[in-house]
Amino acid sequence: MSEMTAATPQLLRRVSAGAVLDFMRASGAVTVTDVIQATGLTRATAISVCEDLMQRGWITELENQRAFGGYQKGRPARRFELNERAGYVLGMDVGFSKATVVVSDLRGKALGRASQPFEIEDISAEERVAVIDRAALMALYSVGASPDAVLAVCAGIAAPVDRKGNVLAAQHFWGLFDVGLKSALDKLHGWTVLLENDANLAALGDRWRGAATGVDDVVVILASERFGSGVIEDGRLLHGSGGGAGELAYLDLVEGVGDTFGIATLARVWAADALEGTAETSLREHAASGAEAEHVFAAAAAGDAEALKILDRLADRMARVIGSVATMVNPELVVIGGAVANSAGVLLEPIAARLPEFTATPPRVAVSPLGDSIVTVGAVRRALDYVETNTLDLELNIPA
């Protein structure tokens, strides 16, 4: 009983500090009165907590200014705000051919970005880590941030990752991403690294700042080169027992689909098939270098008959994919994400028209506005979640 009593003031102090920080993260400059109204703390406690958080570097006190420059009786109210540069988080998108890293402040504002390619396919784990680290340092240096100021890192990879951050290396391709990134970056910089599947991060990112904002039941499908999906059910990201929730390998068995190739890949392959024929098409302008997805969409927009046929095939394929997902998961919304989403809006109407053929529970369908940043946006959100949960246990490295 005595131990419980002794711990109570510390616990209350911690809860109070957490409540103040949560309020300041959602606000701009606030006064002590604002803090009291939002948290229910007494004035003495609110002031004490603010001063403690300020001393630790998490918030700053602003200069007092008289309202509208006019006369104001008494001392002006003290104003505080979150120190959004108290530290930084890194969001990483680690693909097969390159690594992209985004530096964000504590409000989730992207400050810098860098990408580095993996020059060869059979790169070793050590070399892959070196490329990722180089991209991270380039991104940090681009904004003048020190590696010591990084509070958390989240890396999205194209492999299943379980709730504990372990990679499910059950296939050769997945195993390529099991490179010991967490321990390597901890050893190099002392960073806390969170691993997550890239499609799961896409779901988190789009729900935070994309088409799925405010939607609790959503599936986000990365649809560029290959299909992968992240599933959020009742506001909670699903992983499955080994991290395989949302994996779409079963599409090999779906009639009219038969593989996991995405929109960009299919558009490229089907455009090549069209160019082997004799039909007139503006896609022949790209025959030498190969027509890419953006060329197909542009040609279709100009009324090219062959390109329009490809778009019709893409819409049918996407309707079957989304129909199978909707039948199993029953989301309110399915979001098409990835770089191809910038062009895929023209597919929404024909997809919606076909969906009732393939599922009894057709969802709304949208394209993400986040483009090829969708994974890094989700990675930043995941890293921020870690910082916000563990704020009071983190030590800031802020110059005096």
Automatic annotation (TrEMBL):
User: What is one GO biological process annotated to this record?
Assistant: regulation of DNA-templated transcription
Which domain of life does the UniProt lineage start with? Bacteria
Sequence ranges assigned to domain HTH iclR-type in this UniProt record = 20-60
One function term, GO molecular function aspect: DNA binding
Spell out the SUPFAM superfamilies in the cross-references. Actin-like ATPase domain, Winged helix' DNA-binding domain
Q: Which Pfam families match?
A: HTH_IclR, ROK
Which PANTHER family does the entry mention?
A: BIFUNCTIONAL UDP-N-ACETYLGLUCOSAMINE 2-EPIMERASE_N-ACETYLMANNOSAMINE KINASE, ROK (REPRESSOR, ORF, KINASE) FAMILY
> What does the similarity note say?
Belongs to the ROK (NagC/XylR) family.
Protein name, per record:
Putative NagC family transcriptional regulator
Name its species: Arthrobacter globiformis (strain ATCC 8010 / DSM 20124 / JCM 1332 / NBRC 12137 / NCIMB 8907 / NRRL B-2979 / 168)
Q: What is the lineage of its organism?
A: Bacteria, Bacillati, Actinomycetota, Actinomycetes, Micrococcales
